[in-house]
Amino acid sequence: MRPVRRPQLSRRAIAGGVVAVALLACGAASAGSAVGWQSIKPGGNTGCAHGGRFAFWARLADLTKLLVFFEGGGGCYSYSTCAPGSTWFDPAVNNSDSPARMHGIFDLTDPRNPFRDWSAVVIPSCTGDVFIGSTDHTYRQGGKRIVIRHRGWYNGEAALHWAFAHVPSPKRVLVAGSSAGSVGSAFHAPEVIEHYGASHTSQLGDSLAFVFPHRLSLTEYHGLDHLPPWLRGDRQLRPGRFTMASFLARLIAHYPRTTFARFNFRNDEVQERFYAADGGKAAAFPGALLAAERRLHREAPRYRSFLECGRGHTILPLYRFFSLRAEGVSLREWTARIAAGRPVRSLACSS
Question: Is the pLDDT of residue 3 over 60?
C-alpha cells in the first residue's frame, strides 16, 4: 500500500469559489435565492478508484446555513468487488452525480424543502471506501491484480476545505450523507464541528448502519488513520475491533452540543447484500441492525434514530423524503428540526 499526501485545492478551484463569493457580494445573488450548482475539480491528490478525476458540487446561497452532503456509491474491498464492471461500487464522477438531478433535500423548487435556501457542498463517492481511504491498495485473485486508488478521505477533505474558505461563519451546519456517505459524514463530522466551533452542527446518516457479522479492520483503506486524535488510543476502535456503534457512541459523548442521528430501512436490501457478502445471512441483517440501534440508545442516550419498515435504500435525495412518516411525524419535519438544533425523539415504523 502506498500512502498519498494531504489534498490541495488547485488554483482553478480556489478561483472558482472566489468568483462565486464575489457574485454574492455584488448582489448577483442574495441569501436564500436559488443560486446554481457549480462543479469544482480540486485536483491535487484527489481522485477516483480507477484513476479518474474527482469533482464535487457547490452552491452558495444563504451563507449562514451550510449543508455538507456525502453521496452514496457502494463499497469495494476485494478483487471481485473492485474490478472494472463491478456492481458493488461507483468508480467515477460524472453528470449523474450532480445534485441538480436529485430530489428530496436537493429539490430547490419545492417549498417544503427545508434546505432550499442553504449553501451546500455535495461530495460524490467514487473510491469504494466510504470516504475514509487514504492509500493505494492492490487486490489480488489468483493471477489477477488490480490497484485501487482509495482516496475518499482526501476527496472529502478537499471539499471541506473549500467550504471552510467560502462559507466562513455559518450559524447552522448539517453534515449528512446517504449510503456510503452515511459513514463518511460521521468520520468527517469532527473536523467540521471543530472548525465551526461557534456554529450549531448536526450529523445525519442515511441508510448505512455499517453493521456486519464481524468487526472491521479497515486496513485496506488506512481508514482508522483518520480517527480524531482523542480516539486513536481507544482499544475498541483498533483494526479488527471497530464497530460503527462504538465509534458513534464516543462521538456523541465527546460532542454534547451536537445531535447525531441516523435513518435506516429495517430490511434495507443493499445493506443486506453487503451483510451477506461478509459471511452473514441476509435474513439476519434486520436483527443485527436493531441490536446496533438498541446498543446506541443504551450507551448514548442523546442518539436519535428514524427506523422505517421496508426494503428501500436511501431517502434524503428522493421524492419520498417529503411524504414518509412514522408515529405521526414526517421525516421532513424531523430532519428540519435536527438541522435547526431543535429536539427530536427517535421514531420507528409500527409494523
Answer: no
Q: Which of 131, 135, 236, 151 is nearest to 191 (CA)?
A: 131
Please state the length of the chain: 351
User: pLDDT band at 281, cuts 50/70/90?
Assistant: very high
Residues in contact with 305: Cβ distance below 8 Å, sequence separation at least 6, in sequence order? 261, 262, 263, 264, 293, 296, 297, 346, 347, 348
pLDDT at 57: 98
Position 300 pLDDT exceeds 50: yes
The grid cell for 161 is 476545505
Beta-strand runs (E) in the chain = 2-3, 38-40, 56-59, 62-70, 118-123, 135-141, 144-150, 172-178, 200-206, 259-265, 304-308, 325-326, 329-330, 347-348
Opening angle at CA 188, ends 2 and 319, nearest 5: 115
The strand order across the sheet containing 144-150 reads: 2-3, 135-141, 144-150
DSSP state of 238: S
User: CB neighbours of 292 closer than 8 A, spacing ≥ 6?
Assistant: 209, 211, 243, 244, 245
**Among 256, 250, 254, 218, CA closest to 236:** 250
pLDDT at 32 over 50: no
Residue 350: predicted pLDDT: 81
Number of domains present in the structure of the chain: 1
Give the mean pLDDT of the chain. Answer: 91
Which residues span the domain enclosing 31?
A: 2-348
Which CATH number covers residue 329? 3.40.50.1820
Q: What is the pTM of this model?
A: 0.90
Q: With 50 as the cut, is the pLDDT of residue 11 above it?
A: no
Residue type, 31: A
What is the side-by-side order of every strand in the sheet holding 118-123?
Answer: 38-40, 56-59, 118-123, 62-70, 172-178, 200-206, 259-265, 304-308, 347-348
Mean per-residue pLDDT for 321-349?
97
Compute the distance between CA of residue 154 and CA of residue 160 in angstroms, rounded to an integer: 10
d(CA 94, CA 91): 10
